[in-house]
């Protein structure tokens, strides 16, 4: 009996050892996969942090460059135009303007000074910081309206809140790029901007009634072909934690919606 | 069914797969290909000897230190742990000393085999530890040594259990001795089948992953 008991015990021990062994290997597989997933997440987080750092640097450089240009336009060309206008005013007052050319030129210069001021504000990143996204976009829309080539409209829905300077400046530059694309390629007559402040999300929608484009073809294009701008927009939106939805078809309107969490 | 023939077939198949994939398999795996080839030859000789002279123990006195050295070399190539390489002369000397003085040739070299099995367990666990440390995007199935180490772990632990209880079961229960023998066969099947898988999968090594 004692011998049989020992045999049974030995076999049970053997089975337990084998069970532990199999469990060990299975657990190892799971542990390895878990660590791998963690490693992938860490790598992804590092990549995002790195890309955000790059974007931040790009933004700083872009802002600084645009600000320098704005400063130069305002201080140099703006001043020169102002002096030219004063001279023309003097000439006009002295009664030299028999054919009305001086008055006409004065008006052109006045228009140029106004356009220059608008352009200066558009270039200036501090404008976004000072007055916010809504005001900056309204200003941008007004600038486009002045060209008299497009009918523009800006609508604001919901109670306004700040998205933070970094996100707002990125959104503003992205919106500028979308609007510029529409001006250059869409052959649209109407441009609409909608800012929707929802409790959970913020949405910026830019719509034109132009000729549209084939999204799939554009997205399949190589880096150096057309579509790089759109990819860049999507990348920048992704880096501020947003999503960018583009809908367009050839011959139909184009709508780009950027969604950010509040 | 002749279980031994199945065992020889698995060895032959592993050798063929290894030879067929020779250009692709990693250097560390080539050590195991050599091991499988030697094992196949040794087992055939052992089989013939057992049939003709009734004992084949001498074959294992020669083969076991060789197997030990090749496994150490394979693991050294895989993990780049220098201690494994320096252990090679030690295991050969230990095998020789055991076969001459401790358990001379007419007797079975069980002490040395036990030592070898514990060494295999240690090597397999070291590899598993290394595998957990590395940061890789590669799938586990694509590490040939994962298969070899798993097979080796099952083989070694089963064999230690078998060796430890062998005499006890022979004396007390013939039926259980037969079961134990089958377990031994199957652990051998698993061990050498793991080589076939290792030769067939993508050849990722942990030393490569360290470099990346």
Automatic annotation (TrEMBL), chain A:
InterPro entries: HATPase_C_sf, HATPase_dom, His_kinase_dom, Sensor_HK_TwoCompSys, Sig_transdc_His_kin_sub3_dim/P. It holds the Pfam family HATPase_c. Its EC number is 2.7.13.3. Residues 68-262 form the Histidine kinase domain. GO terms for molecular function: ATP binding; phosphorelay sensor kinase activity; protein dimerization activity. Keywords: ATP-binding, Kinase, Membrane, Nucleotide-binding, Phosphoprotein, Transferase, Transmembrane, Transmembrane helix, Two-component regulatory system. It comes from the Bacteria. The chain crosses the membrane at residues 6-32. CDD domains: HATPase_UhpB-NarQ-NarX-like. It catalyses: ATP + protein L-histidine = ADP + protein N-phospho-L-histidine. GO terms for cellular component: membrane. This is histidine kinase. It comes from Arcicella rosea.
TrEMBL record, chain B:
The keyword Transmembrane helix applies. The chain crosses the membrane at residues 6-24, 31-51, 57-76, 83-104, 110-133, 145-170, 182-201. Keywords: Membrane, Transmembrane, Transmembrane helix. The keyword Plastid does not apply. This is YhhN-like protein. It comes from Arcicella rosea.
């Amino acid at each position: 009996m004692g011998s049989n008991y020992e045999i049974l015990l030995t076999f049970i021990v053997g089975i337990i050892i084998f069970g532990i062994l199999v469990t060990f290997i299975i657990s190892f597989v799971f542990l390895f996969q878990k660590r791998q997933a963690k490693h992938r997440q860490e790598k992804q987080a590092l990549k995002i942090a790195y890309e955000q750092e790059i974007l931040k640097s790009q933004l700083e450089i872009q802002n600084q460059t645009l600000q320098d240009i704005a400063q130069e336009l305002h201080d140099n060309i703006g001043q020169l135009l102002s002096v030219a206008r004063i001279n023309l005013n003097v000439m006009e007052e002295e009664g030299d303007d028999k054919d009305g050319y001086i008055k006409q030129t004065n008006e052109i210069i006045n228009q140029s000074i106004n356009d220059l001021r608008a352009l200066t504000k558009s270039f200036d990143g501090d404008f976004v910081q000072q007055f916010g996204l809504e005001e900056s976009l309204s200003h941008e829309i007004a600038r486009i309206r002045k060209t008299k080539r497009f009918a523009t409209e800006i609508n604001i829905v919901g109670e306004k809140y700040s998205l933070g300077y970094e996100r707002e400046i990125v959104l503003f530059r992205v919106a500028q790029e979308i609007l510029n694309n529409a001006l250059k390629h869409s052959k649209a007559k109407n441009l609409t901007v909608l800012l929707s402040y929802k409790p959970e999300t913020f949405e910026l929608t830019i719509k034109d009634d132009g000729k549209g484009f084939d999204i799939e073809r554009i997205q399949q294009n190589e880096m150096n072909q057309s579509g790089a701008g759109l990819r860049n927009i999507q990348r920048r939106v992704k880096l501020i934690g947003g999503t960018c939805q583009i809908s367009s078809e050839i011959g139909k309107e184009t709508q780009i919606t950027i969604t950010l969490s509040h | 069914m002749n279980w031994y023939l199945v065992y020889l077939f698995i060895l032959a198949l592993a050798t063929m797969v290894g030879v067929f994939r020779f250009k692709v398999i990693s250097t560390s795996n080539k050590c195991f290909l050599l091991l499988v080839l030697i094992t196949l030859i040794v087992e055939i000789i052992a089989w013939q000897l057992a049939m003709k002279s009734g004992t084949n123990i001498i074959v294992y006195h020669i083969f076991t230190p060789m197997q030990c050295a090749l496994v150490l070399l394979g693991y050294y190539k895989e993990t780049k742990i220098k201690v494994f390489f320096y252990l090679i002369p030690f295991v050969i000397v230990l095998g020789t000393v055991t076969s001459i003085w401790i358990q001379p040739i007419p007797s079975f070299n069980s002490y040395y085999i036990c030592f070898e099995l514990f060494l295999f367990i240690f090597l397999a666990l070291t590899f598993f530890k290394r595998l957990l440390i590395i940061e890789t995007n590669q799938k586990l199935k694509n590490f040939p040594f994962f298969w070899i180490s798993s097979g080796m772990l099952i083989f070694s632990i089963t064999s230690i259990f078998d060796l430890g209880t062998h005499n006890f079961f022979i004396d007390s229960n013939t039926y259980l001795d037969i079961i134990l023998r089958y377990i031994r066969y199957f652990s051998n099947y698993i061990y050498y089948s793991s080589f076939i898988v290792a030769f067939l999968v993508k050849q990722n090594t942990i030393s490569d992953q360290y470099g990346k």
